[in-house]
Amino acid sequence: MPTRYDLDRAELSALLAGEPRYRVDQVWDGLHRQLAEPGELTTLPKALRARLAEELPAALHPVAESATPGGDTVKWLFELDGGARVETVLMHYRDRTTVCVSTQAGCAMGCGFCATGQAGFQRHLGTGEIVEQVVRAARRARETDRRLGNVVFMGMGEPLANYDRVWPAVVRIHDDLGLSARHLTLSTVGLVPGIRRLAAEELPVNLAVSLHAANDELRNELVPINKRYPLSVLMGACADYLRAKGRRLSFEWALIDGTNDRLSDARELAELARSLPLPAHVNLIPLNPTPGYRTRGTSADGVRRFRQRLEDLGVNATVRRNRGTDIDAACGQLAARVELSPRAQRTSTVM
Ligand code: SF4
Q1: Cα–Cα distance between 20 and 9 in angstroms, integer?
Q2: Is the CB of 287 under 6 A from ligand 1?
């Protein structure tokens, strides 16, 4: 059975065959603009509301919710049809509100430092499952008088490995939830065919490349997909994306103590960032402790030195605040507890 955000407008029209035509607009706007549940659409006759509530069920079943003490970061654990679990993280900043969504349950890319990668791949998420994460976050933001303005596809999974479901979700979030393309960021660990498809799309979304190493030897080790798409090929695709879209591109760099935080790493990274038609911005992510992974994140001093070195080499770099480490919601850490210790996760607030 399709869930409420699986259907496109034509499919919703088919479901509402026999109803007046304006009902399609009422339901579509109610689900997307008003962020309403089918049962809350009071402009509809009661019987139709009840029918839609039954025929358009939710895709995400909340298992747990946790939040930082000030409520700046909220993390949900959702169960999907079939039992797989994914996480969604809502982050309030001083000037913006962002949701980080998952695109796969687990991930097949096998990056050694990533909790999700360690747990392996379960299944792709459907378009409706992705859109519903955004809708739920937008609804929650609205409850606290905030407006969800940004979506980053940086949760569990590799978005471009699930392109055929992720891109329709991007279009829906843009066209129907009303978020601008400049506020949508797709991340990739370097799937070159996906980057090339993105470059041919109409919407100019932001691209964040999880680089983590700037020479092939180290990157083969940290990010195994590099063996298939080495840095020279990846940089070629990034350059073409920039020429096609004119958007700033960012490199994500999880700083791992003694592995990719040396001054020589900064120099190699700066060279790659400056080699693009528009220099890449670098986001530095102090690596979170991940159960089962023996290496540690770079110290705070080391992070500062690395950033300064990049700036000295003419590359803009931001240290990503490790939001939500205390609730395991920082990037590369989603699913650390979910997959490795499902029982422990249930001890947080059950909805
Ligand atoms: S870092 Fe990203 S691509 Fe690599 S295993 Fe983790 S979720 Fe997958």
Answers
A1: 15
A2: no
Distance CA 121, CA 150 (A): 26
Q: Which of 135-144, 203-212, 287-296 has the lowest mean pLDDT?
A: 287-296
Report whether residue 190 contacts ligand 1, using a CB cutoff of 6 Å.
no
Give CA–CA dist 237/234, Å, rounded: 5
- Whether 111 lines ligand 1, by a CB cut-off of 6 Å, is yes
Percent of the chain whose predicted confidence (pLDDT) is above 90: 80
The answer on pLDDT for 116 being more than 90 is: no
* Substitution candidate for ligand 1 out of 89, 210, 222 with most atoms within 8 A of CB: 210
Q: Compute the distance from residue 80 Cα to the ligand 1 centre, in Å.
A: 20
pLDDT digits (tens, 9 = 90+) for 157-201: 999 999 999 999 999 999 999 999 999 999 999 999 999 999 999
Question: pLDDT tens for residues 276-313?
Answer: 999 999 999 887 666 666 678 899 999 999 999 999 99
Q: Cα of 148 to ligand 1 centre, how many Å?
A: 25
Determine how many CB atoms are found less than 10 A away from the CB of residue 153. Answer: 26
**What is the residue-wise DSSP string for 58-108?**
-S-EEEEEEE-TTSSEEEEEEEPTTS-EEEEEEEE-SS-EEEE--SEEE-S
Distance 154 CA to ligand 1 centre (A): 9
Q: What is the pTM of this model?
A: 0.91
Q: Tell me the three state secondary structure of residue 335.
A: coil
Q: 192 with 199: CB under 8 angstroms?
A: no
| Cβ–ligand 1 contact at 155 (below 6 Å) | no
Residue 15 CA to ligand 1 centre (angstroms)? 38
Inter-axis angle of helices 192-199 and 231-245, nearest 10 = 10
332 lines ligand 1 (CB under 6 A): yes
- Which range has the worst mean pLDDT, 21-30, 64-73, 155-164? 64-73
